[in-house]
Amino acid sequence: MTGAMYSAVAGLRAHMNALNVIGNNISNVNTNAYKASRYTFLESMYSNVRGGSDGTTIVGGRNPAQNGYGASIGTIDLDMSTKNFTPTGINGDCMINGNGFFIVGDKNNVISNSSDLKDMLLTRHGDLAFDNQGYLVDGNSKVVYGYLATEKMVQNAEGDWVPQYEGQPHLTAMRLPMTVKQECYVFTDDNGQVFFSADKPTAGGTIKAQDVYGKEKEFKIKTGPDDTTADAIDASEWIHKEVGECVSPGYRQIPTAADGTVVDTDPWEFADATNSTFLSDSRALVDNISIDEKSGRVTATTQNGNVVVCGYIAIAKVDNPNGVSHIDGHYYQALDGAGRVHATSIGHAVQNSHAAVMDTTTNPPTVKEPASLGWRPADPTAPGGEGSGVPGEYEGILNSGGTTLITGGLESSGTDLASEISNMILVQRGYQANTRIVTVTDTMLEELVNMKR
């Protein structure tokens, strides 16, 4: 008879755990981007009262007789499906419409492959804004990670103008572009690579300039429009940058070795190859922030009215999104059970630079491999020879698929209040029924003790 009491106690414990899940869901009914938990019950262990047997040519078979000992919580998993949009009217607020997570963390994380992404924090809560240092952060001061590359607009084979990148996209903490502290001149070489120089170009002369990686190169300046010197630059095409004007995001790796050797673990920074500074003096420098829903492109309107591109928001895709582990607040990590983490871009707006690109310097435009453009392949076995690549490029940038962004609001809570209240009633009645088993068993034991009278 005491077996029934053990089963009832196990049932009480299981229903109390279920009520804890329901209570947490209901308490977060108004928590933006909250993902509700779901529980399932599991039958507990069984004891064999009588074993089963197969039939013979003479007698029939017999089923096993087993007796269970209660129930327990089988699973508690997350519902990571996309929920409703809650408008806030704030430009920086952003909701992921589809699968995926924002990648957030500290400023100095170096991401070179998917295993590094497993150490990053993932979130669905997109309350984004620039802090006083120019970093794009969420509401808890975690820095948002995205793709940075100097970009230009080029015309593809279909005649559409699309962004193309100077150098490989770099997955890093997103920060506002720089303002130039000194006058400089900006130009592109025959391959479309951006170079900067503080010296004014003189027709027929030479000039030294640096690219966004800080690598210096010497150029000849054409004597005029009829000069056909190979690799020479037309002085009329140089763009003069005034002091304080924004330049597109570029980046370079800072060598830590005394001889200037660059290795993959060296830190990265924005660079325009001249004295420059971040737009970081105050939040007042940014009048407005805009996030493109189809590409994740972040632009900001600056103090002088310029609209500058800050980069593209990265979206992390997890093999098993329901298997992520809740860390704290809005944050998750792809620990055991979640599988691999992949870096993606919305609408494949940011692609691997080791893919074929359109060269618009020829007429008609032609497709060229990156090795011919002087870009460093991340894969040592890739065409063009060995190269160190860029963090965030090792395994490639995937397409986010159907995932897009919805700006001007946040994702609502995943709690379905009607379902939770109904489940609470069922759990309450289940708990009540198990208490009745305890009281009935107690009454029967009392009768057994009273037999001695």
Secondary structure topology:
Blueprint: H1 2-27, E1 37-43, E2 46-50, E3 65-68, E4 71-78, E5 85-87, E6 93-97, E7 101-105, H2 114-117, E8 121-123, E9 126-127, E10 129-130, E11 136-137, E12 143-155, E13 161-173, E14 178-180, E15 184-188, E16 194-197, E17 206-211, E18 216-221, E19 232-233, E20 239-241, E21 252-253, E22 268-269, E23 276-278, E24 286-291, E25 297-302, E26 307-318, E27 325-328, E28 331-333, E29 341-345, E30 357-359, E31 366-368, E32 398-399, E33 404-407, E34 409-411, H3 417-450
Parallel strand pairs: 18-19, 29-32
Antiparallel strand pairs: 1-4, 2-3, 5-34, 6-9, 6-33, 7-8, 7-12, 7-26, 8-28, 10-11, 12-13, 12-26, 14-23, 15-16, 15-20, 16-17, 17-18, 21-22, 24-25, 25-26, 26-29, 27-28, 30-31
Number of domains: 3
Main sheet? Answer: 11 strands, mixed
* Radius of gyration computed on alpha carbons: 31 Å
The stretches of 5 or more residues where confidence is low (pLDDT under 50) are: 270-284, 353-358, 369-395
Fraction of residues in helix: 10-25%
The 3D shape can be described as elongated
Q: Roughly what is the average pLDDT, rounded to an integer?
A: 76
Structural class: alpha+beta
The counted number of beta strands is: 34
- What proportion of the residues form beta strands (DSSP E)? 35-45%
N-to-C CA distance: 21 Å
Quaternary form: single chain
How many separate helices? 3
